[in-house]
Every structure is written in structure tokens, then in C-alpha cells.
Amino acid sequence: MIDETGVKKFRMARMSRLILTFTLVLLSLPLAFLVASLVGARMLAVPALLITMVYAWIWLRFRPSQFIVHQGGIDVRWPLRRIKIPRQDISSVRVIDGQQLKKEIGWGMRVGAGGLWGSFGWLWTKRRGVVQMYISRTDSYVWIERAGNRPWLITPEQPEAFVCALSR
């Protein structure tokens, strides 16, 4: 989406089928605990509340809602926080698929939130060390190489348009 100032806004991409399925299963847990607590297993009300609070925290602090490309760089927005990546810190940006990603990073392990609405946080990788990761799909990733900083792996809607907007 382009507004009148030339700023381009990209929402987080829709979840892939795998992540959507996992998300629906995870979202059913607090509901199942709540129902169980209402029909007699009262001790499950506390875990239902705790899980719901964790899920809210993930939505508000871990899952970005928008990537905004402008002349100065990228603003990444969450409901409760924002990060700016200055354009001069970005050395390259490209769309990569799962096979290219595997070649780029080798073996990896997620550190952060994963499964519910996507994977967010750090991706510790064999070849690249720690990568900042905010993904909601299992294809069409955007790899942002940053000079002197950790690379970013994200999944904005319209990844090709995102790369084009940032490459100008």
C-alpha cells in the first residue's frame, strides 16, 4: 500500500497452512482448559489464564503487525513497540525461498516465540550466527542483510514489492 507521502506499508504476510494449523491447535488449549474448569476441573482455570496472558504477550510484543518502508529505512511496528532500521544499515535485501534459506544458514534453532502466529525472535544458525526472525509463512522470505548488525528474516505481504520498495 502506498500513501500520499510515498511511504509503503506492508502487513505481516498471512500465515501458511502449517503455521495456521499449529496456531489453531494452540489457541484451542486455553479454551479447552477453561471449559474443563467450568465442568468441574477448577484447577485448570489458572493455566487457562496464564496461557491466555502468554498468547497476548506474543501478539503484542513478538509478532510485528507492519513493516513500513520509507526514505529513511524501515519501521517495524508491533502493537506495543517499534524498531527503526536506518537505510544506511541495510547492505542488501532479497526474496529467498526455503531451499535458498537452508543454503544461507545451514542448521538453525529458534530462540523466542514459535508456532503461534509464526516464529518470532532469534534464529541461531550454524553459518550466520544469530538472525533476527519475524516470519508467518514457510515460503517467500525476505532476507535483509545489515552492515555490522544481525541480518533479519521477515515475511511481509507482497515480498517482491517490499524488496523493490526498499531497493529504490
Q: What does this 3D model show about the protein?
A:
The protein has about 170 residues and is of the alpha+beta class. It has one domain. It has helices at about 15-40, 45-60, 100-105, 160-165, and strands spanning about 10, 65-70, 75, 80-85, 90-95, 110-115, 120-125, 130-135, 140-145, 150-155. The strands form two sheets. The chain has a six-stranded mixed β-sheet, sandwiched between helices. It is elongated and about 60 Å long.
Main sheet record: 6 strands, mixed
Shape, principal axes of CA atoms: elongated
- List the secondary-structure elements in sequence, H or E: EHHEEEEHEEEEEH
Number of helices: 4
What count of structural domains? 1
Q: Give the uncertain stretches in residue-range form.
A: none
Q: Summed up, what is this model?
A:
With 168 residues, the chain is of the alpha+beta class. It has 4 helices and 10 strands. It has one domain (1-168).
Features:
168 residues; alpha+beta; 4-stranded antiparallel beta sheet; 10 strands; 34% helix; 33% strand; elongated
Mind sketching the topology for me?
Layout lengths: L7 E4 L5 H22 L6 H18 L3 E5 L2 E5 L4 E5 L3 E7 L1 H8 L2 E7 L4 E7 L3 E7 L5 E6 L5 E3 L4 H9 L1
